[in-house]
Every structure is written in C-alpha cells, then in structure tokens.
Write a structure and sequence with these properties.
Blueprint lengths: L2 H4 L17 H16 L3 H8 L3 E10 L5 E12 L5 E8 L4 H17 L5 E8 L7 H14 L9 E5 L5 H15 L20 H20 L7 E5 L5 H10 L3 E7 L2 E4 L6 H10 L11 E3 L1 H5 L5 E4 L18 E3 L8 H9 L3 E3 L1 H4 L2 H15 L5 H25 L4 H20 L4
Parallel strand pairs: 3-4, 3-5, 6-7, 6-10, 10-11, 11-12
Antiparallel strand pairs: 1-2, 2-4, 7-8, 8-9
Helix pairs in contact: 2-4, 2-15, 4-15, 5-6, 7-8, 7-13, 7-14, 13-14, 14-15
This protein binds glutamic acid (GLU).
Glutamic acid (GLU) binds next to strand 3 and helix 13.
C-alpha cells in the first residue's frame, strides 16, 4: 500500500468535510480511521475505542483578588480505562475546549499503549489565562477544581500531571487538596510534582529527553550524525528547552528556537544553556536575548535544517506550510502539531515524522515511574530513571518503526496501529460488561 492510499478515507465513517485545521478530535479520528482499516477492526470495537468513556465538566467559582467571584469552566475527559487507571495532564489556557481535551485524552490512550505503560488515557483543562492571574487566584482555582474532581481523581482511578501552563506547584496544590479530603497524604494521586512531595528525579526533563532519544534513533535510521546535524525547535517551555539542550549536548547545532516572544536564529548555533538561563531570569521569556537574530514562526518552520521539533501547540504544520518544510525529520514534542492533511504532504515528500504519541511519550513514561515509586515508597536515582526511560523509548521507537514498515505506512499510522491493537486486544479479553 502506498502512503497515498493510506490517506484515503476509511470505510468506517462517512467522509468528513476535508478541512485542514480540523477540530482536534476529528484530526485524531482521521488517523484512527486509517489504522482501524489496516487492523480490520471490528466496527463495534471501532465505536467503543473512538468514544470517550466519561466527560466531566465543572463550574469553578473563584474569589478573585478584587474580592469578586468569577466563574471558570473546567474539564476532565477520561477517554479509556481499558489498560489501567487513566492518565494525562491538565492544561490551563484561554482557548481550551471540550473537543481539544477529548482529542488530547484519546492521544494519551494511544501514547500509553505505544510505550507499554499500563494506563488508560485522560486529559483535563481549565478555561483561564494564567498569565493574567495572581498566584493566589491560581491556587484557589486549582484547589476548587480538584475538590470538584474528588470522585474522578485517585491513584487507582485517574492521575493528573502537568501540561501546557501547569507545573510542579499546581500539582502540589492538587496533591494537598486531594489529601485534605481523603484524610491522608496521597502522593500517587498526581505526577510531575516536586521531588520533596514524592516527585521523581528526571520527571521535569523527561518529555524533552524522550524527544532527544527518538530523534537520535530516527537520525541513525537515516544515516545522519548528530555532530553534523542542524535543528530548529519551536517552543522553549519544559519540552522544547530540554530537547534543544540535550540535542546540543549530543553535538547537534541548534540554529533556531522560539517562544511566545518570537523566534531566535544563529547560523553558528545558539548557546542553549545561556538561553535557558536568560529565559529563567527574564520571567520565562527570551525577549531581548542578545546573541541571535529575530526570525518569524514561518521562517523557523521552513528552515533548511535536518530536524524540526515542534514543541509548542497544535496545528503548526498545516497545508499552508507543509510543502515549505525542509527538515528531513519532524520530531513532535507537542501534542497534535501536524494536521492530517499536512501529514499526507509530508509523507509524499519523504519527511520522516516521529509522531507525538511516540515522540513526547517520555513525560508519561516517567510519570509512570513516579507513580510506581510513590506506591512503593522507594525512590530511584536520576540515572536509573534516565536509563529506564531511554530503554522504553528505544523499544517503542523500534516497534513503531517495524509496524510502519510492515504495513508500508508512516510512523504516525504505525504508532496508531500499535496503540490501538494493544488496547483492542485488552478489550477483547476483558469483554463487554452488561
Ligand atoms: N501532559 C503530558 C502529555 O501530554 C504528560 C502526561 C502525564 O504524565 O500524565 O503526555
């Protein structure tokens, strides 16, 4: 089957309108369709696996610093609990919505299955602009959301983690609020928390480290040497900055990075350590960083580099720019940065895309290690965490690569095939409770 055939609509659904920036859940379903057809998935299983198990929507009242009450909306979508308790981050953003959280929850299901982590998939979100809120307002918002989710969260049920605009401090407030209600300290209810409260060594860097591992594995397959390779990284948060730093340490030249303040380019290679220090001392912004030229987002994405790592947000590589991408490898640190239509263009042009559900799975892998350590009350060294993470990411990369080759398809569809077949296999054995 050629890569073009793979992108024909499947028999499972009526063709959706051919949009580029589909709603993200639709973008997930489009890939699911292709994988389901390859797997000849039973139509009943298809419906089961594509449908979220539970969608929770809560109103969150917060007393703002002005003394006035403001209502916020919060979500937690449990996509699947077939392989184990559901797992996934919580994002705070002004434009987060149920469709996006549904897609992100489903991606967590396939991601956990791809890396062989025994969790189902979930995701949460709160519609808010954390940049305009005080620490006190954020704390009250987080605590009330957690209280509203008391029957949803739990170490054996559903385990949140950080995602866009959430961090260790927010996880600590979730842990504390949950523990106050449970009348015991329950460290395993959340991952990505401070090490002092049962967090894991290496968790903060884990997503970026995983991006580095699979990028090097892909470079090896293409015969590229790190010391001769160039990289552009979109996004300089927890994922992008660590991926850039670790790839630079492997000898890659990082020609460009970007954050909310803009893009930064240096033909000789950027000093990533200096940029991390600069950003940390300038309110998490690279604004005004001296040793680089400004570059636009479009220019960064179409740079003539070996590796492009989109580590910011959804829908960055689209039909508008897919034919301008020069990179040989796209390593998706973000969730959903490439649209399905752009996938088809990239596949035709021979760009090797390491899909999000593989490339950024290092985060949830070390979240799993954190949960295991909390439950055992025994903590590993950072070296042990990193070695186990590297082993699991390598194994996942190899098995996705082989699956893609076997079905003559892209790594993305290979990853979906692997993830879906694992969850479908578990569903078959569990059966349908009536
Ligand atoms: N938010 C991260 C992701 O999208 C991590 C989720 C987790 O560790 O549970 O994979």
């Amino acid at each position: 089957m050629s890569s073009k055939d793979v992108y024909k609509r499947s028999v499972y659904r009526e063709p959706a309108p051919v949009l580029d920036q589909d709603n993200p859940f639709q973008a997930m379903v489009e890939r699911f369709d292709v994988a389901a057809r390859i797997l000849e998935l039973d139509p009943g299983f298809y419906e089961y696996l594509v449908t979220p198990a539970k969608i929770h929507i809560v109103g969150i009242p917060v007393v703002m610093d002005t003394g006035k009450i403001k209502m916020f909306e919060g979500y937690r979508v449990i996509h699947s609990e077939i392989l184990g308790p559901s797992k996934g981050g919580i994002r705070y953003a002004p434009d987060v919505n149920v469709e996006e959280v549904k897609a992100l929850a489903a991606w967590m299901t396939w991601k956990c299955a791809v890396v062989d982590v025994p969790f189902g998939g979930a995701k949460g979100g709160i519609v808010c602009n954390p940049r305009e809120m005080s620490p006190g307002e954020l704390e009250r918002l987080t605590r009330r959301y957690t209280a509203n989710m008391m029957d949803v969260f739990g170490p054996e049920r559903d385990i949140p983690a950080p995602d866009m605009n959430t961090n260790e401090q927010i996880m600590a407030w979730i842990l504390d609020t949950y523990s106050m209600h449970a009348r015991r300290t329950e460290t395993a209810v959340v991952t990505g928390k401070p090490i002092l409260l049962g967090g894991s060594a290496g968790r903060r860097e884990a997503t970026g480290r995983g991006v580095m591992t699979v990028t090097l594995a892909a470079m090896e397959r293409l015969g590229l040497r790190a010391s001769e390779s160039t990289v552009a990284v979109q996004g300089f948060g927890n994922v992008g900055s660590v991926a850039a730093d670790l790839l630079a340490k492997q000898g890659c030249r990082i020609l460009a990075v970007s954050d909310v303040s803009g893009g930064y380019y240096n033909a000789n290679g950027l000093d990533i350590q200096a940029m991390i220090a600069y950003s940390a001392s300038h309110g998490n912004s690279l604004e005004g960083y001296p040793d680089a030229e400004p570059i636009s987002n479009d220019e960064l994405l179409s740079l003539d580099v070996d590796v492009l790592a989109p580590c910011a947000k959804e829908d960055q590589v689209t039909l508008k720019n897919a034919d301008k991408i020069h990179a040989k490898i796209i390593s998706e640190g973000a969730n959903g940065p490439t649209t399905p239509k752009a996938d088809a263009v990239l596949a035709d042009r021979g760009v090797l895309v390491i899909p999000d559900i593989l490339a950024n799975a290092g985060g949830v892998t070390v979240s799993y290690f954190e949960w295991v350590q909390d439950r055992q009350g025994y903590f590993w060294t950072e070296d042990r965490v990193n070695r186990r993470l590297d082993r699991m990411m390598h194994a996942a990369f190899d098995s996705v690569f082989e699956t893609a080759q076997k079905h003559d398809t892209t790594l993305r569809i290979g990853a979906y095939v692997r993830g879906i077949s694992k969850v479908a296999g578990a569903l078959k054995i569990r059966g349908i409770y009536a």
